[in-house]
Amino acid sequence: MTILSETQPVSTLGRLYIYAIHGYVTEVMFTAAWEFVVNLNWKFPGNTSVWSLFIYGLSTLLIEKLYLLLKDRAPLLVRALIYTAWTYCWEFCTGYVLRHFNACPWDYTPFDGDFMGLVTLEYAPLWFIGGIVGEQIVIKNTLRLCWAATDDDDRDVNDDDNVHVTGYFTR
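RE: above sequence
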């Protein structure tokens, strides 16, 4: 029989890691789908930059804070608009800084609605939907994750070698 003893939520650093990996994989999948739709490339070559780990990780941590602040104060569609506005500000600022080091991995100048090649209005529906999906699936479930120590009945519970850590969702 396994008894769950003390539980702890995933740390901020752990959530940063989850959000960074999620953003990174999402961008690779998006660029692969884009390559297929635009060029009918059945190889689905997705790509991104290592910078996206930091960009998505930190941005989603801030969106998490906004979610916790606004969840009881604003309806979902209003929150999604706020997330979209934040995404545009964050994408512009990070792109602006990276461009100064010749390291900006995106260039939206071919798009009609671009501003300085760093953001484009054509992506507004995607950022809006991404904000909803990010909140409802990624952030809510990440905040439910907990670490719990388990003790097995067959072992000496005073022996630290017999304590196991497992992750699980809270309700």
